Amino acid sequence: MPAKPPQAAGRPKDAGESKGGSKPCPECGKPASPATAPFCSPRCRDVDLNRWLSGKYVIPGRDTDPEDAE
Q1: Residue 34: CA atoms inside 13 Å, Cβ hemisphere, count?
Q2: pLDDT digit string, tens, across residues 40-69
Q3: Among 5, 22, 24, 67, which is disulfide-ready with 16 (CB 3.0 to 4.6 Å)?
Q4: 3-state secondary structure of 31
Q5: Residue 36 forms part of a structural domain
Q6: What's the rounded Cα separation, in Å, for the pair 12 and 9?
Q7: CA–CA distance from 12 to each of 15, 24, 64, 65 (Å)?
Q8: Whole-angstrom distance, CA of residue 2 vs CA of residue 48
Q9: Is the pLDDT of residue 15 over 60?
């Protein structure tokens, strides 16, 4: 199950949600486009991908004990 990126600070979870019920773009909050869902544009999709690839989004794991490393 892929982890969700962190929510932008200061923005309510449902900010930008249109009356039609479509979810907002996780990057900018504009309504999502069906062609680039869940993002509103290829640019926002690429910004998110760059954050994953550059390590800005990190999935936390538990620390390993030195005994487990063997």
Answers
A1: 1
A2: 999 999 999 999 999 998 888 888 777 766
A3: 24
A4: strand
A5: yes
A6: 8
A7: 5, 11, 35, 38
A8: 14
A9: no
Its domain, for residue 40, covers: 26-55
pTM: 0.55
- Per-residue tokens: 27: 């990057």
Q: How far is CA 12 from the centre of its chain?
A: 14
In the numeric block, which tokens belong to residue 21?
């019920």
**What is the distance between the alpha carbons of residues 37 and 31, in angstroms, rounded to a whole number?**
10
Does a structural domain hold residue 32?
A: yes
Could you tell me if residue 33 is inside a domain?
Answer: yes
DSSP letter for 65, please: P
Check whether 2 has a pLDDT greater than 70.
no
Backbone angles phi, psi at 24, to 5 degrees: -75, 160
How many domains are there within the chain? Answer: 1
